[in-house]
Amino acid sequence: MNTVITIGRQFGSAGREIGEKLAEYFGIKCYDKELLTRAAQESGFCEEMIQNHDERPTNSFLYNLVMDTYSFGYNASSFVDMPISHKVFLAQFDTIKKVAEEGPCVIVGRCADYALAGKTNVVHLFIYADEESKVQRVMEKYSLTESKAKDMIIKKDKQRQSYYNYYSSKKWGRADSYDLCINSSVLGVEGTVRLITQYVEDFEKKSV
């Protein structure tokens, strides 16, 4: 096994659970919130700060102005002046690259596919689901009413979408941004995991 798997996911689609089961199947690590802990340790930011900016873009006028000024070519002096949310993004970006260098793993969310663009041993997935099963899952997981669950799904997906679209050059959830997009409602979690393991195993054979 030599493949790194990145997973973009709609909120409530079981993307993280699928990622964990894939990691278990292949006997590799799964990074989700663990990525934040590691990024905090390696960047010197406190973990709370990284969590506060996790997959949340800033869309203030000032922030856009600063972003345009640096446009990603950062050196030591410009890094000092950067908005904190951008520093946090770069800390996560660096950590994603490091964990991928260390060996095969599953990385959930956080523009991992963008961070690892151009690498040949990576499979990029996007997990989505139909409205009904997402609402049901979120209601059960967070003990919410149906309307609260719907609100939470809309809010979380908006955050993820704007974060991804802001920092990457691609569009969140659009098929041509990924290698494989799967509706987890059709086959359920276990069936989706089986489908992906088959895909990854075939990908490995082709890459040899």
Helical proportion? 55-70%
When the domains are counted, the total is 1
Query: According to CATH, what is the topology?
Result: Rossmann fold
Largest sheet features: 5 strands, parallel
| 3D shape | globular
SS-derived structural category: alpha/beta
Rounded mean pLDDT score = 86
How far apart, in Å, are the first and last alpha carbons? 11 Å
Uncertain spans? 60-76
Write the element-wise H/E pattern from the N-terminal end onward: EHEHHHHHEHEHHEH
CATH superfamily: P-loop containing nucleotide triphosphate hydrolases
CATH architecture: 3-Layer(aba) Sandwich
Number of strands: 5
Which CATH top level class fits? Alpha Beta
What are its keywords?
single chain, alpha/beta, Rossmann fold, 5-stranded parallel beta sheet, 5 strands, 208 residues
How would you summarize the topology of this molecule?
Blueprint: E1 4-9, H1 15-26, E2 29-31, H2 33-43, H3 47-52, H4 61-70, H5 76-81, H6 84-102, E3 105-108, H7 112-115, E4 122-128, H8 131-142, H9 146-167, E5 180-183, H10 184-207
Parallel strand pairs: 1-3, 1-4, 2-3, 4-5
Helix pairs in contact: 1-10, 2-6, 8-9
How would you describe this protein?
This protein has 208 residues and is of the alpha/beta class. It has one domain (4-207): 3-Layer(aba) Sandwich (Rossmann fold), CATH 3.40.50. Helix content is 61%, strand content 12%. The chain is built from ten helices and five strands. Helix 1 (15-26) packs parallel to helix 10 and helix 2 packs across helix 6. The relative contact order is 0.21.
